[in-house]
Design brief:
Oligomer: single chain
Strand order of the largest sheet: 1-2
Mean pLDDT: 84
Radius of gyration: 18 Å
Structural class: mainly alpha
Distance between the termini: 39 Å
Largest sheet: 2 strands, antiparallel
Amino acid sequence: SEQFNGELLVNGQLQDVFTIQDEITGKIVDALHVRLASAGRAALVRGVRTRDAVAYDLYLRARRATYELTLADVQRAITLFEQALARDSTFAEAWVALADAYTFLAQFGNLTPAEVAIRWRRAAERGIELDSSNGYAYALRGSVRSVYDWDWDGAWRDMRRAVALSPASADVALNYAQFLNLVNEPESS
């Protein structure tokens, strides 16, 4: 029920939106009296890990387009993610979201399965390289390993790592459940 009373303007300039988000996130965590290890708290307030407002805007527009679930929208999302990454190639969350978009393109796109696999894998692995604590990146790599490579051991390792890193993620849970179905172990956990 509180209001944010931080300074939006500093010397007549709008403050960095990411700084504002970090301050609000910190206040929410404090207000809820959430007890986290320092690494967990740092993960909550780190945001999307880009400081480029244009890249962030492109990322948000691409995320929305991805879930319109039409071929044209997923292709537009991929273009927007690529534009965001051209501005900030270290934007891990954008790499992971790009890999996610390729999962949809694999289902109804116009690329060959080999082309989709190469792009999907490259984006997921770059996301892991930039942020090894992103569970969804591991789930996406595990999916590409199982569906395209039939690398069951690699897929199992990635899926287990994904669940360990992000146990509350619906995206990770969905990918893991699909994987368990694929390997005919739907009752596993």
